[in-house]
Structures are given as structure tokens and as C-alpha cells.
Write a structure and sequence with these properties.
It is built from six helices and two strands. It has about 220 residues and is mainly alpha-helical.
């Protein structure tokens, strides 16, 4: 005769429920002891009956096993903490920034004439107005830069003309300066222009003069 399978549900009969609890509790503690012995496992069991009575089993010490369990839970919390409010705000900020970057990138592609197939007529009109306004500002900025460049070139041209005029004036004065220098270098000095006195005449001149008067040969 096969054993009838017991349906797992609450036993309504109090006496039967108490008997089943005692049998199952002893069997549970026996299995825990076997597991601890065979596998060298550290096991602790806490069981409260329907009346609130505590039954416990531990391969070593229930307190030690519970303390190990608490330490393990704290270690897991440190390794995988729940996100703080600051991290959540930072994550939300990053999500908003990514969304904004995606939108700006899409607008830039539209301005470049890309990915226009999905746009409606109103969006295309707004894009056209945006492009016209941008082109107007571009032309204004270009004209402003052009006029600045012209003003700069005019200023440089005026400076060059002024420098050229100064060089021309200096070249006009150059011949007068050269004549003055040449005239100053051509005048004899005081010692050269001074008239020599008879006492300053060399003896060779006197001897030659006397030789000429007497008709004598000129001494070598």
C-alpha cells in the first residue's frame, strides 16, 4: 500500500498540530546536526512554537553564529550600499544633461540639413526662420569685420605715408649736410695756414740759396 501524500497546509486540529510540530522539529534538528557533522558547517536554528515557546539548536553557539551573521550583513552593506540621495541627484543630473546634449545634437543636425525627413511643416518653417536669422547675424558680423579690416589698412597706409614724408624730408636735407661736411673738411688747420717766419726756414733752403748766388755746385 502506497503512502498517502500529505497536503501542506495548516492543521486545524490543535492536538494533531502539536504532535506534528514536535516530530518535525526533532527531524529538523536531526538534519541540522547531520549537516553540521558531515560538512563541518556552523549551524544555528531558532524555532518558535505557536504558543511562543523557543526551541534552538546550534552546532557551536547560537550567539556566535548570529554574530557572524550580523558581521556578514554589515560587510555586504559596505560593499553594495544603497544609493544615497546625493548619488541619486547626481544620476538625475547626468540623465538630464545627456537628454539635453541629445536634443542639441539633433538641432545641430537639422541646421546642417540632416535628418529632416521626420520633421513636420511647422517644424520646417521654424527651422527656416532660425536659419534666416542666423544668416542675417552672420552677414552683419562679416560686414563689421570687413569694415574693421578696412579701417586698419587705412591706418597702416597713413602711417606709411607719414614715414615716407619724413624720409623725403631727410633726403632733401642730405645734400646741404654733405656740403657742410665737405666744406669743413676742406679748410686748413691753424698750424697749416700759419705763415712761416724766416727763423722757421730750414737750413737746407739757406744753403741752396747761397750756392746759387756763388755759382758753386749744389752740395749732395
Amino acid at each position: 500500500m502506497t503512502r498517502q501524500k500529505i497536503q501542506i497546509k495548516k492543521i486545524d486540529n490543535v492536538a494533531a498540530r502539536q504532535v506534528t510540530f514536535s516530530k518535525r522539529r526533532r527531524g529538523l534538528f536531526k538534519k541540522a546536526h547531520e549537516l553540521s557533522t558531515l560538512c563541518d558547517a556552523d549551524i544555528a536554528l531558532l524555532v518558535f512554537s505557536a504558543t511562543g515557546k523557543l526551541f534552538e539548536y546550534s552546532s557551536s553557539s547560537t550567539g556566535q553564529v548570529l554574530e557572524r551573521r550580523n558581521l556578514q550583513s554589515e560587510r555586504i552593506d559596505r560593499l553594495d550600499p544603497s544609493p544615497s540621495l546625493e548619488l541619486q541627484l547626481e544620476s538625475n543630473t547626468h540623465a538630464m544633461l545627456r537628454k539635453e546634449v541629445a536634443e542639441k545634437t539633433r538641432e545641430l543636425r537639422h541646421l546642417r540639413g540632416e535628418e529632416l525627413q521626420g520633421l513636420g511643416l511647422e517644424e520646417l518653417r521654424n527651422l527656416e526662420k532660425l536659419l534666416e536669422g542666423g544668416l542675417t547675424r552672420l552677414m552683419e558680423t562679416k560686414d563689421e569685420q570687413f569694415f574693421k579690416e578696412i579701417s586698419s589698412l587705412k591706418r597702416k597706409g597713413a602711417e606709411l605715408m607719414e614715414e615716407n614724408q619724413q624720409l623725403k624730408q631727410q633726403m632733401e636735407k642730405l645734400p646741404h649736410v654733405v656740403q657742410a661736411v665737405v666744406a669743413q673738411q676742406g679748410q686748413p688747420s691753424d698750424s697749416t695756414a700759419r705763415i712761416r717766419s724766416p727763423a722757421d726756414t730750414p737750413q737746407a733752403d739757406n744753403s741752396s740759396d747761397i750756392s746759387l748766388r756763388l755759382g758753386l755746385p749744389f752740395p749732395n
